[in-house]
Amino acid sequence: MARPRRTLIGVVLLLVVVATAGFAGWWFLIRDDAPPRADIDTASETLAEAGGGEDVAVGDLVGDWAVDDSVGSFDDFSGTWAGYRFDEELASVGANTAVGRTPGVTGGMTVSEDQVTAVDVEVDMTALQSDQDRRDQTIKSRGLETEHFPTGSFTLTEPVDLPDGVETGERVQAIATGDLTLHGVTREVTVDLEAELTGDRAVVVGSSPVALADFDIEPPTNAAVLSVSGEGEFEFQIFFAKS
Fold it and tell me: Which residues, other chains included, contact 175 with Cβ-Cβ below 8 Å and sequence gap of 6+?
Protein backbone atom coordinates (compact mmCIF):
# COMPACT_ATOMS: atom_id res chain seq x y z
CA MET A 1 0.00 0.00 0.00
CA ALA A 2 3.01 2.29 0.43
CA ARG A 3 3.62 2.73 -3.30
CA PRO A 4 0.01 3.72 -4.23
CA ARG A 5 -0.02 6.13 -1.31
CA ARG A 6 3.24 7.73 -2.44
CA THR A 7 1.86 7.90 -5.98
CA LEU A 8 -1.33 9.60 -4.80
CA ILE A 9 0.66 12.10 -2.77
CA GLY A 10 2.85 12.77 -5.79
CA VAL A 11 -0.17 13.42 -8.00
CA VAL A 12 -1.66 15.80 -5.43
CA LEU A 13 1.62 17.69 -5.14
CA LEU A 14 1.85 17.94 -8.92
CA LEU A 15 -1.65 19.37 -9.13
CA VAL A 16 -0.81 21.90 -6.42
CA VAL A 17 2.32 22.97 -8.32
CA VAL A 18 0.39 23.30 -11.59
CA ALA A 19 -2.39 25.30 -9.92
CA THR A 20 0.12 27.56 -8.19
CA ALA A 21 2.00 28.14 -11.43
CA GLY A 22 -1.26 28.92 -13.21
CA PHE A 23 -2.23 31.43 -10.57
CA ALA A 24 1.22 33.02 -10.68
CA GLY A 25 0.95 33.32 -14.46
CA TRP A 26 -2.43 34.99 -14.15
CA TRP A 27 -1.20 37.30 -11.38
CA PHE A 28 1.91 38.50 -13.14
CA LEU A 29 0.91 38.33 -16.80
CA ILE A 30 -2.84 38.34 -17.35
CA ARG A 31 -4.29 40.09 -14.31
CA ASP A 32 -5.49 43.54 -15.29
CA ASP A 33 -4.48 45.78 -12.40
CA ALA A 34 -5.16 49.15 -14.05
CA PRO A 35 -5.99 51.84 -11.48
CA PRO A 36 -9.71 52.44 -11.04
CA ARG A 37 -11.47 55.41 -12.57
CA ALA A 38 -11.76 58.61 -10.60
CA ASP A 39 -14.52 58.29 -8.03
CA ILE A 40 -16.30 61.20 -6.40
CA ASP A 41 -16.66 59.30 -3.10
CA THR A 42 -12.91 58.73 -2.82
CA ALA A 43 -12.14 62.27 -3.99
CA SER A 44 -14.55 63.63 -1.39
CA GLU A 45 -12.69 61.77 1.37
CA THR A 46 -9.40 63.27 0.19
CA LEU A 47 -10.95 66.73 0.15
CA ALA A 48 -12.32 66.27 3.66
CA GLU A 49 -8.91 65.15 4.94
CA ALA A 50 -7.25 68.18 3.36
CA GLY A 51 -9.76 70.53 4.95
CA GLY A 52 -11.67 73.16 3.07
CA GLY A 53 -11.04 76.23 5.18
CA GLU A 54 -13.97 78.51 5.87
CA ASP A 55 -17.30 77.55 4.35
CA VAL A 56 -18.05 79.51 1.22
CA ALA A 57 -21.47 81.10 1.18
CA VAL A 58 -23.55 80.60 -1.93
CA GLY A 59 -22.94 84.13 -3.16
CA ASP A 60 -19.19 83.81 -2.52
CA LEU A 61 -18.86 81.01 -5.07
CA VAL A 62 -18.76 83.74 -7.68
CA GLY A 63 -15.27 84.41 -8.95
CA ASP A 64 -12.16 82.58 -10.07
CA TRP A 65 -11.03 79.15 -8.88
CA ALA A 66 -7.50 77.87 -9.56
CA VAL A 67 -6.27 74.29 -9.92
CA ASP A 68 -4.97 73.21 -6.50
CA ASP A 69 -2.14 70.66 -6.55
CA SER A 70 -1.65 70.75 -2.77
CA VAL A 71 -4.49 68.30 -2.09
CA GLY A 72 -3.72 64.58 -2.02
CA SER A 73 -0.79 62.90 -3.77
CA PHE A 74 -0.03 61.75 -7.27
CA ASP A 75 1.69 58.66 -5.88
CA ASP A 76 -1.66 57.07 -5.05
CA PHE A 77 -3.71 59.17 -7.50
CA SER A 78 -5.52 60.88 -4.64
CA GLY A 79 -4.46 64.33 -5.92
CA THR A 80 -4.98 66.27 -9.14
CA TRP A 81 -4.28 64.42 -12.39
CA ALA A 82 -5.46 63.90 -15.96
CA GLY A 83 -4.83 61.01 -18.30
CA TYR A 84 -5.96 58.32 -20.71
CA ARG A 85 -7.52 54.84 -20.54
CA PHE A 86 -7.36 52.50 -23.55
CA ASP A 87 -7.71 48.76 -24.08
CA GLU A 88 -4.79 46.97 -25.70
CA GLU A 89 -3.72 43.46 -26.70
CA LEU A 90 -0.30 42.36 -25.48
CA ALA A 91 1.77 39.49 -26.90
CA SER A 92 1.79 36.43 -24.59
CA VAL A 93 -0.47 38.30 -22.16
CA GLY A 94 -3.76 39.09 -23.85
CA ALA A 95 -6.22 41.86 -23.12
CA ASN A 96 -5.00 44.68 -20.92
CA THR A 97 -6.11 48.18 -19.98
CA ALA A 98 -3.47 50.86 -20.47
CA VAL A 99 -3.78 53.81 -18.11
CA GLY A 100 -1.45 56.80 -18.13
CA ARG A 101 -1.74 59.87 -15.92
CA THR A 102 0.06 63.15 -15.34
CA PRO A 103 -0.01 65.48 -12.32
CA GLY A 104 0.90 68.40 -14.58
CA VAL A 105 -2.49 70.13 -14.62
CA THR A 106 -2.79 73.91 -14.48
CA GLY A 107 -5.52 76.47 -15.09
CA GLY A 108 -8.81 77.34 -13.48
CA MET A 109 -12.52 78.04 -13.77
CA THR A 110 -14.84 81.00 -13.33
CA VAL A 111 -18.18 80.80 -11.51
CA SER A 112 -21.06 83.24 -11.84
CA GLU A 113 -24.14 83.25 -9.61
CA ASP A 114 -25.66 80.12 -11.10
CA GLN A 115 -23.22 78.87 -13.73
CA VAL A 116 -19.67 77.82 -14.37
CA THR A 117 -18.96 80.23 -17.21
CA ALA A 118 -15.36 79.36 -18.04
CA VAL A 119 -12.91 76.49 -17.66
CA ASP A 120 -9.42 76.57 -19.11
CA VAL A 121 -7.13 73.70 -18.17
CA GLU A 122 -3.75 72.79 -19.65
CA VAL A 123 -2.12 69.38 -19.24
CA ASP A 124 1.58 68.53 -19.40
CA MET A 125 1.55 65.47 -21.66
CA THR A 126 5.30 64.90 -21.29
CA ALA A 127 4.74 63.90 -17.65
CA LEU A 128 2.34 61.03 -18.45
CA GLN A 129 3.17 57.89 -16.46
CA SER A 130 1.76 54.39 -16.75
CA ASP A 131 2.77 51.05 -15.24
CA GLN A 132 5.14 50.38 -18.16
CA ASP A 133 8.21 52.51 -18.81
CA ARG A 134 8.37 51.17 -22.37
CA ARG A 135 4.88 52.50 -23.04
CA ASP A 136 5.80 55.89 -21.59
CA GLN A 137 8.90 56.07 -23.78
CA THR A 138 6.99 54.96 -26.89
CA ILE A 139 4.34 57.70 -26.73
CA LYS A 140 7.05 60.34 -26.79
CA SER A 141 7.72 59.63 -30.47
CA ARG A 142 4.66 57.60 -31.53
CA GLY A 143 0.94 57.74 -30.83
CA LEU A 144 0.51 60.88 -28.74
CA GLU A 145 3.98 62.06 -29.86
CA THR A 146 4.46 64.13 -26.74
CA GLU A 147 7.91 65.25 -27.91
CA HIS A 148 6.16 67.22 -30.66
CA PHE A 149 2.87 67.93 -28.86
CA PRO A 150 3.84 68.46 -25.20
CA THR A 151 0.54 69.92 -23.99
CA GLY A 152 -3.15 69.11 -24.14
CA SER A 153 -5.98 71.37 -23.07
CA PHE A 154 -9.69 71.67 -22.41
CA THR A 155 -11.70 74.88 -22.81
CA LEU A 156 -15.35 75.11 -21.83
CA THR A 157 -17.48 76.44 -24.70
CA GLU A 158 -20.93 76.36 -23.09
CA PRO A 159 -21.80 77.44 -19.51
CA VAL A 160 -22.63 74.70 -17.02
CA ASP A 161 -25.70 75.38 -14.88
CA LEU A 162 -25.38 75.00 -11.10
CA PRO A 163 -28.23 74.00 -8.79
CA ASP A 164 -29.75 76.77 -6.71
CA GLY A 165 -28.00 77.27 -3.38
CA VAL A 166 -25.02 74.94 -3.75
CA GLU A 167 -23.66 74.26 -0.26
CA THR A 168 -20.65 72.55 1.29
CA GLY A 169 -20.87 68.78 0.91
CA GLU A 170 -23.39 68.95 -1.92
CA ARG A 171 -22.59 67.06 -5.11
CA VAL A 172 -23.32 68.24 -8.61
CA GLN A 173 -23.67 66.08 -11.71
CA ALA A 174 -23.39 67.76 -15.09
CA ILE A 175 -22.39 67.42 -18.72
CA ALA A 176 -19.84 69.94 -19.93
CA THR A 177 -19.24 70.82 -23.58
CA GLY A 178 -15.88 72.14 -24.64
CA ASP A 179 -12.88 71.98 -26.94
CA LEU A 180 -10.35 69.24 -26.25
CA THR A 181 -6.93 69.66 -27.85
CA LEU A 182 -4.71 66.61 -28.25
CA HIS A 183 -1.87 65.95 -30.67
CA GLY A 184 -2.25 69.48 -32.01
CA VAL A 185 -5.88 68.83 -33.05
CA THR A 186 -8.94 70.43 -31.42
CA ARG A 187 -12.32 68.71 -31.31
CA GLU A 188 -15.55 69.44 -29.46
CA VAL A 189 -16.31 66.88 -26.74
CA THR A 190 -18.89 66.34 -24.03
CA VAL A 191 -17.66 65.46 -20.57
CA ASP A 192 -19.63 63.63 -17.90
CA LEU A 193 -18.58 65.05 -14.55
CA GLU A 194 -19.32 65.13 -10.86
CA ALA A 195 -18.23 67.84 -8.45
CA GLU A 196 -18.31 68.54 -4.75
CA LEU A 197 -17.65 71.66 -2.70
CA THR A 198 -15.97 71.59 0.70
CA GLY A 199 -15.32 75.01 2.21
CA ASP A 200 -13.27 77.06 -0.21
CA ARG A 201 -12.12 74.03 -2.17
CA ALA A 202 -13.85 71.89 -4.78
CA VAL A 203 -13.10 68.68 -6.66
CA VAL A 204 -14.27 67.73 -10.14
CA VAL A 205 -13.97 64.20 -11.58
CA GLY A 206 -15.04 63.03 -15.00
CA SER A 207 -14.29 61.44 -18.33
CA SER A 208 -15.08 61.64 -22.00
CA PRO A 209 -14.81 59.11 -24.84
CA VAL A 210 -12.00 59.73 -27.30
CA ALA A 211 -11.47 58.34 -30.81
CA LEU A 212 -7.79 58.47 -31.74
CA ALA A 213 -8.58 59.02 -35.42
CA ASP A 214 -10.39 62.25 -34.54
CA PHE A 215 -7.08 63.64 -33.30
CA ASP A 216 -4.93 62.20 -36.10
CA ILE A 217 -3.32 59.75 -33.66
CA GLU A 218 -2.03 56.44 -35.00
CA PRO A 219 -2.29 53.70 -32.34
CA PRO A 220 1.30 52.68 -31.49
CA THR A 221 2.04 48.96 -31.85
CA ASN A 222 5.18 46.80 -31.78
CA ALA A 223 6.23 43.21 -31.11
CA ALA A 224 4.97 43.44 -27.52
CA VAL A 225 1.82 45.48 -28.20
CA LEU A 226 -0.25 43.70 -30.84
CA SER A 227 -3.02 46.27 -30.96
CA VAL A 228 -4.40 49.35 -29.26
CA SER A 229 -8.09 50.17 -29.38
CA GLY A 230 -8.89 53.18 -31.54
CA GLU A 231 -11.43 54.30 -28.97
CA GLY A 232 -10.86 54.97 -25.30
CA GLU A 233 -11.33 57.86 -22.93
CA PHE A 234 -9.61 60.73 -21.24
CA GLU A 235 -10.27 61.04 -17.53
CA PHE A 236 -9.40 63.45 -14.78
CA GLN A 237 -9.60 64.37 -11.13
CA ILE A 238 -8.97 68.04 -10.44
CA PHE A 239 -9.04 69.95 -7.17
CA PHE A 240 -9.73 73.69 -7.23
CA ALA A 241 -9.26 76.42 -4.61
CA LYS A 242 -11.02 79.77 -4.67
CA SER A 243 -8.60 82.49 -5.76
Answer: 160, 190, 191, 192, 193
